[in-house]
C-alpha cells in the first residue's frame, strides 16, 4: 500500500508538469484553433534558460524561473507575429510554420548549450517529509503548489479581466469578436505568450526532476499533448485533469512495467480516446485559422 501511495505522489508531481504543458497547448488551440507544434521545444528552451539563469547567472530559482518565462513569452509573441498574416488564409501552412519554428528552436538550443545536457539540483534542500510512512520530497510539493497557483491565476485571468474576457470571446466566435471591436490579433498574441510562459514554467520545474537536454521537449511535448487530448482539447480544466491522469498512469507504468512503461501508458491512453474521442470534458473541435 505504501509503495502504491509513494508512486501516486511521484505521479502527481509529474502530472502537474504535464498539466502545465497541456494548458499551453489548449489555450492556443482554444483561441486560434491551431495546434502549436513548437510548444514542446519552447518548454525545452524554458528548461535550458531557467537552468542557465539558476546555475550560471546564480539567480535565485524563483527569479530564474520568472526570467525564463519572460524569454519564452517573447518567443511566443514572435511566433504569433510571423504566423499572423496566414490566419484565416492558410491553416496548413500555419501548422507547418509551427513545426518549422520547433526545428529552429532545437537548432538554437544546440548552438547555445551544445549537445551535452545538464543536471539541475533541487532548489530545496530540506529532507523529505514522512507522512504516514510515505516519504514525500519537498520539491514535489513545490511543483504541485506552483502548478495549482498557475491554474488558479489563469482561471482568474480568463474570467475576471477584460483581456481574458476578450480571449474567451475570440474563442467562441472570432468574427463576432471582431465585429464588436475586439483586437483578435492581440488576443492571439497574448494566448501565444501565455502558452509559451506555461511551457517555460513546466520546463523550469521539471529540470530538477529530469535531465535537461535537447530531447526534453519531445518527452514533455508528447505527454502534454496526450494530456490535452485526454482532458478535451481546448479545455483548460481538462488539461489539468488530463495532465494528472497521464502523470499518475506514467508513474504506475514505470513502477510495474519498467522498459515497457511508455507503451503501456499510450495503450491505455489510446483506449481512453477510442472510448471518448472528444476527451473527458468533451470540448468540440474548433477552427479559427
TrEMBL record:
GO molecular function list: transmembrane transporter activity
List GO BP terms, alphabetically.
amino acid transport
Membrane topology, as annotated, equals: Multi-pass membrane protein
> What Pfam families does UniProt report for this protein, alphabetically?
BPD_transp_2
Instruction: Write the signal peptide boundaries.
Output: none
This protein's GO cellular component annotations are: plasma membrane
Name the family.
Answer: Belongs to the binding-protein-dependent transport system permease family. LivHM subfamily.
Protein name, please?
Answer: Branched-chain amino acid ABC transporter permease
Q: Which organism is it from?
A: Streptomyces fuscichromogenes
